Task: inverse folding
């Protein structure tokens, strides 16, 4: 009987160990606030080098932009940050941003996430969270 109980206990422990831990949150997958800030910093560097869209940022305080974007992505990914900037429609009104500009920005963000080895599923999840903003940013 003791042997049966020992085998049963061993099997239960083995089954518990084999269970996968719950998937990390998007916020955790992005490296929490510090990781997000690094990705955003690299993203801003890519935007600054992108001739298709850099002109939109000519008068922008890049340190402030980095702080705002970090908070926005942190909040969108389920982190503890709070984005306190303006709404996307007001901030981008009158800039004549087209879909091609928006797509260039997304490309630069993906490139920054690749640079920081953000896993593809986390990239897709973040883009899915940010994607609905497109309608407030792009002028039709």
Result:
């Amino acid at each position: 009987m003791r042997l049966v109980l020992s085998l049963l206990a061993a099997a239960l422990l083995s089954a518990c160990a084999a269970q996968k831990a719950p998937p990390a949150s998007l916020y955790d997958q992005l490296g929490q606030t510090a990781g997000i800030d690094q990705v955003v910093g690299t993203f801003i560097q890519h935007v600054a080098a992108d001739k298709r869209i850099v002109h939109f940022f000519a008068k922008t305080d890049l340190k402030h932009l980095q702080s705002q974007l970090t908070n926005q992505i942190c909040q969108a990914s389920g982190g503890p940050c709070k984005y306190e900037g303006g709404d996307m429609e007001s901030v981008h009104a009158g800039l004549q941003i087209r879909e091609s500009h928006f797509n260039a920005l997304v490309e630069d963000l993906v490139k920054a996430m690749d640079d920081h080895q953000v896993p593809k599923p986390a990239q897709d999840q973040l883009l899915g969270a940010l994607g609905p903003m497109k309608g407030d940013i792009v002028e039709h």
